[in-house]
Automatic annotation (TrEMBL):
It holds the Pfam family MTPAP-like_central. This is Poly(A) RNA polymerase mitochondrial-like central palm domain-containing protein. Residues 44-190 form the Poly(A) RNA polymerase mitochondrial-like central palm domain. GO terms for molecular function: nucleotidyltransferase activity. One of its GO terms (biological process) is RNA 3'-end processing. InterPro entries: MTPAP-like_central, NT_sf. It comes from the Eukaryota. It comes from Aegilops tauschii subsp. strangulata (Goatgrass).
Length: 249
């Protein structure tokens, strides 16, 4: 019987090349069933580029977010003091990836060290979030912020707050080194080819319009969508690809 179970288990393991072949075959069938006039591609390309241009943030959007990062960093110093330049508040997410729109949230991380790995205990993160929330509640009463909402029970303890002056929603976490690392990687990928940034903007916008860009609603996160775009652009013909210097691309 054990032999039978092993055979059944092995039969359930799909070969990656077989899966790729099946996916490509299905895609070819779907494309063949579509009636597309290649002569309209240039007009579609121009239209999508116009949409992309509208979605792109203006210089003031960058200035406002950089100013908020500075404000929160000074706030962290007032709350926790200064220990060799720490804590410091740093941005990550769509802003640092340069994939944000004027309506995007601003992801912030309160960092107490320059370590790449997150070494901060969960209890400390919860304590930091509570202290930040206490100060933000006070500033909310003064009319500077609104919508202060600490969620210490979340997998990643966080406090949400909206800056009244700009209307930007800020999501403040603690030692979010994982998020910062992913953001740097996506920023690097984005620098390889501008089409990655353009397609990421367009697919994210499509996903928001169709309500499939909300992890809280059990749909895709923005990082998942961007990762799918990166995967798509590595398929044949590959737009994003790694080429060692010793090999021709």
């Amino acid at each position: 019987r054990s032999g039978d179970s092993e055979e059944e288990a092995s039969s359930m393991v799909w070969d990656s090349q077989d899966l790729r072949g099946r996916a490509e075959h299905n895609e070819e069938q779907l494309l063949a069933a579509m009636s597309v006039d290649p002569g309209r591609f240039p007009a579609l390309n121009d239209l999508l580029l116009e949409v992309y241009a509208v979605l792109r943030p203006k210089p003031t959007d960058y200035e406002q977010r950089n100013a908020l990062v500075d404000v929160f960093s000074k706030m962290a110093t007032r709350i926790f003091g200064n220990d060799n330049g720490f804590p410091v508040v740093q941005a990550f997410g769509s802003f640092t990836m340069d994939l944000f729109t004027p309506k995007s949230d601003l992801d912030l991380s309160v960092n107490f060290s320059a370590e790449i790995e997150d070494q901060c205990p969960r209890k400390k993160k919860m304590k930091v979030v509570r202290k930040f929330a206490k100060v933000l509640y006070s500033l909310q009463r003064d009319g500077i912020y609104c919508g202060v909402l600490p969620v210490v029970s979340a997998k990643v303890p966080i406090v949400n707050v909206i800056d009244r002056g700009t209307g930007i929603e800020c999501d403040v976490t603690v030692e979010n080194k994982d998020g910062m690392t992913r953001s740097m990687i996506i920023k690097l990928i984005s620098s390889l080819d501008e089409r990655f940034q353009i397609l990421s903007y367009l697919v994210k916008t499509w996903a928001k319009i169709h309500d499939v860009n909300s992890p809280t609603a059990q749909t895709m996160s923005s990082m998942s969508i961007i990762s799918l775009v990166a995967f798509h652009l590595q398929r044949r013909p590959a737009i994003l690809q790694y080429c060692p210097r010793s090999l021709p691309c």
